[in-house]
Amino acid sequence: DTAVSQTPKYLVTQMGNDKSIKCEQNLGHDTMYWYKQDSKKFLKIMFSYNNKELIINETVPNRFSPKSPDKAHLNLHINSLELGDSAVYFCASSLFRTSGGSTDTQYFGPGTRLTVL
Amino acid sequence: AQTVTQSQPEMSVQEAETVTLSCTYDTSESDYYLFWYKQPPSRQMILVIRQEAYKQQNATENRFSVNFQKAAKSFSLKISDSQLGDAAMYFCAYFSVQGAQKLVFGQGTRLTINP
Predict the structure, then answer these.
(1) What pLDDT score does A54 carry?
(2) What is the DSSP string of A27-84?
């Protein structure tokens, strides 16, 4: 009963290629996120979507483009991959609280380890 | 902007003993959530415990408990009766209720359990 799933779990590619990571959640959540964990294990938000609408876009290069076809899916497409893009990418999801206007606890997927050669 | 600081890059404890991981944060907000997440070698991010800032009572989950000191902006995690399966990276995280809907993480503490 996977709650938040990501594919692929591992991705090895050459510099300059374009790749996508897919994320799906079956928790009935309406908010989804992408986080990046660098080689020093530091985690930082990249994007978040609420009901398919972009609500957070941190300082991320334009080569990264999230796409949310529906509220259960949030994909991450990366163009012209660079060595510095090597990291673990986590998808997460949560439920938006209508009272208080905030989101609930975030649940994470298993992560995708991207290696750019 | 909010910041979260975990001043202990590494900690170790004997199996069955108690260990406390430190976390401090900086914010001007009064309403927020704090979390501890665990990341074992499998890489999965697992929620350990959550604390709402408006609650004075410290959260507990079985062997895990927190010491939340709002005025001091401190949020430490206590693990009692440490088990080998507790070995992992532990991340403290801050979430603003009214502001940007994102988790702000500390640098992490690597916990080793000695048998």
Answers:
(1) 87
(2) S--SEEEEEEE-TT--EEEEEEEETTEEEEE-S--TTEEEEEEETTEEEEEE-S--GG
Q: What is the pLDDT of residue B30?
A: 85
pLDDT value, residue A103 = 59
* Residue A101 reports pLDDT greater than 60: no
Looking at residues B29-52, what average pLDDT do you find?
93
User: The dihedral of CA B39, A77, B103, B2: what is its sign?
Assistant: positive
B11 close contact with A: CB closer than 8 A: no
Per the structure block, which two tokens stand in for B110? 């690597």
Q: Using CA atoms, how far apart are residues A88 and A6, in angstroms rounded to an integer?
A: 12
Chain B partners within 8 Å of A33 (Cβ): 102
Contacts of A43 in chain B (CB under 8 A): 91, 103, 105
What band does A77 get if pLDDT is binned at 50, 70 and 90? very high
Percentages (nearest 5) of helix, strand, coil residues in chain B = 5, 55, 45
Residues 6+ apart with CB under 8 A from A90: A6, A34, A35, A36, A37, A43, A108, A109, A111, A112, B45
Tokens of A117: 């050669």
CB-nearest to A48 from B35, B97, B101 is B101
Q: Can you tell me the distance from the alpha carbon of B71 to that of A45, in angstroms, rounded to the nearest whole number?
A: 27
C-alpha–C-alpha distance, residues A87 and A41, integer Å: 9
Partner residue opposite B101 with nearest CB, options A90, A102, A105: A102
Structure-token pair, residue B78: 């206590």
